[in-house]
Amino acid sequence: MATTSQETLAEPTVTARWIDILTPEQQARVRRDLAFERVVAGHVVEHIGGWADAWLGVVDGLLRVSVGSPDGRVVSFTGIPPGGWLGEGSLLKRERRKYDVVALRESVVARLPAATFDWLLDTSIPFNRYMLTQLNERVAQFIGRSEYRLLEPDARVARHLAELFNPLLYPGAGMRLAINQEELGYLAGVSRQRANQALRALEAAGLVTVAYGAIEVRDLDGLKRYVG
Fold first, then answer.
1. Does residue 24 surpass a pLDDT of 80?
2. Residues paired with 76 in a beta bridge
3. pLDDT digits (tens, 9 = 90+) for 51-81
4. CB of 112 within 8 A of CB of 57?
5. Please, what's the b/e burial string for 90-111 (b: 16 or more CB within 10 A of its CB; e: otherwise)?
6. CB 180 within 8 A of CB 213
7. Is 111's pLDDT higher than 60?
8. Tens digits of per-residue pLDDT, 150-178?
9. Where along the chain do its domains lie?
10. pLDDT in the model for residue 194
11. Which CATH code fits 151-225?
């Protein structure tokens, strides 16, 4: 296991819905151009203000998209579990990142170069359709977050947890995710103790099963509607 903040890897096994819809020629180029790195918890994968030069995917682990203030406060936008990809907006607008991407736990990150991303947009109608779905889901996700601020902590935790099981954005997550109370607390903006309290309430409601270092969702629709 690497003891440094990051480690370049040979190609691991990558399954992604958008790769499966490409032609054999396009798949071959994607697999040739993808680069992978293993990063430790706390490593900043992308810094705010840095130029967007790759589309990022999570092969393993958990990433947080967030911004920080000079006084140390952090606002989390979303978490990205295995199977999720992020950063397409900055690539499409050819701009600097407006957020940090931080590993909440040891993770394996895939990078698809911007040139390959642009080539897929130019040559693949299915990829363009996939990207429209990705962007539409992302917009709906952030619109929904305006409601979260009006909810009690248990309901906020429920909504943030439900986001991680979005089958369109994160098809690789399944219904069980390796995440602990502290990591969920980071995403929901609550303490580890408060996240634990919320999870116990959700478990009592029959919506989730909490295991050591993992959460299994039993009722995703119920989780999305939970108000406490």
1. yes
2. 66
3. 999 999 999 999 999 998 777 778 888 899 9
4. yes
5. bbeeeeebebbbbbbbbbbbbb
6. yes
7. yes
8. 789 999 999 999 999 998 898 866 789 99
9. 6-144, 151-225
10. 95
11. 1.10.10.10
Residue type, position 66, single letter: S
DSSP code string of 23-39: -HHHHHHHHHH-EEEEE
Place of tokens 């931080």: 102
Whether 226 and 158 have beta carbons less than 8 Å apart is answered as yes
Q: Go through the chain and tell me how many residues it has.
A: 228
Task: Kindly state the average pLDDT of the residues 20-49.
Answer: 96
- CA 168 to CA 83: how far, in whole Å? 10
Least confident segment among 5-19, 75-89, 130-144: 5-19
Q: CA of 84: how far to CAs of 21, 58, 60, 80, 125, in Å?
A: 16, 6, 10, 6, 21
Q: Which two tokens stand for residue 29?
A: 């180029």
For domain 6-144, the CATH class is mainly beta
Beta strand extents in the chain (DSSP E only): 6-9, 35-39, 44-46, 54-60, 63-68, 74-80, 85-86, 100-103, 107-113, 176-177, 208-211, 214-217
**Token pair 């979005």 in the structure block, residue:** 166
